[in-house]
Specification:
Layout: H1 2-32, H2 37-67, H3 71-75
Length: 77
């Protein structure tokens, strides 16, 4: 009777348990790498801030082009 339990126990310990542990921690790590809702909200805020900054820079460049057309060539040196 003990011989019948010994072989499956060895197979479980040598083959099944390591694979089970590797798969468990691999899925756990991949789940933690996903963005949380807090991260997504922060990214949306950064994106909106970036769009506003781009608009401001575009407006400033347009004003400078109208006031001083040569500003790009004089400040590129």
């Amino acid at each position: 009777m003990q011989e019948l339990l010994f072989v499956p126990l060895i197979v479980f310990t040598v083959i099944v348990a390591p694979i089970w542990l590797i798969l468990h921690y691999a899925t756990r790590n991949s789940a933690s790498k996903r963005l949380t809702s807090k991260d997504e909200a922060m990214l949306e805020e950064l994106h909106a801030s970036t769009r506003r900054m781009e608009e401001r820079i575009h407006n400033l460049e347009r004003i400078l082009d109208a006031d001083t057309p040569e500003w790009r060539t004089t400040h590129d040196r």
